[in-house]
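Morning. Coffee machine broken again, so started the prediction first thing and wrote up yesterday's gels while waiting. Chain of 263 residues, entered below exactly as on the submission form.
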Amino acid sequence: MEQDLIEPCLHSDPTGAKLRRTARFTGAATCCGIVIRTIYTIQKTTAINIMHQILIYSDSLTWGIIPDSRERLSFEKRWPGVFEHSLTEAGKKVRVIENCLNGRRTAWSDPFKEGRDGSQGLAQVIEMMSPLKLVILMLGSNDFQCTHNNNAWLSAQGTAKLIQIVRHAPIEPVMPVPDIMVVAPPPIIQPKGVIARKFEGAEKRCVGLANELQKVANEHSVHYFNAGNVTNASAIDGIHLDANQHQLLGKVMADAVSECLDL
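Came back before lunch.
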């Protein structure tokens, strides 16, 4: 005696594409019971209205600290919010995820504050936030704090390390490895105000960072954007961004990402 049972089941994979699973059970009655053989058929159908997630991994420039203060701009006023709004207005279905920490370096620790080495925990952030369409890495400014004697080349090697971490993060097998965009922050100018001592001499040590980051981006075949071509650092503290600079950067970044990615 044989019998066939068919159970169709619809569900979605993590990228938003629908999967149809058909399980066929064939059994034969014997004196010892029923032997069941299972056949699975996976059929991928067209994905509609996929929401693309973009992770921005950065420091206080993106966190939105108001220069020479400890206050923060609201989401819609800092550049990730402007970036998301601009893409949405252009008809793109995107969700921007911020992971920005004040004082974060590319690959160095802060002797006074825990958790500032950007390479530590990045793999788990990628795993946690997947599936991701794009990871934007905008770091480097804090590599030039007075606690480090880094030059531009060395800081760029820290970003190269982050690229490798993103690409080898322990994401689920069905998840896509995201595209990566390296963003060079605006060059540091004369540090002023409450952070002047912390960044003493940084404007000299950071010279050439944009060029070195572009080399790293080319070597690792990732997207590159130079924020210094759009805006300078704030004249108030020499490092961060004023509200109008956030607005400008967010809009231009939306155009840049739209040009290089199919959203």
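Helices lie at 60-63, 79-89, 122-129, 152-167, 202-205, 209-219, 243-260. Going to sketch it on the whiteboard this afternoon.
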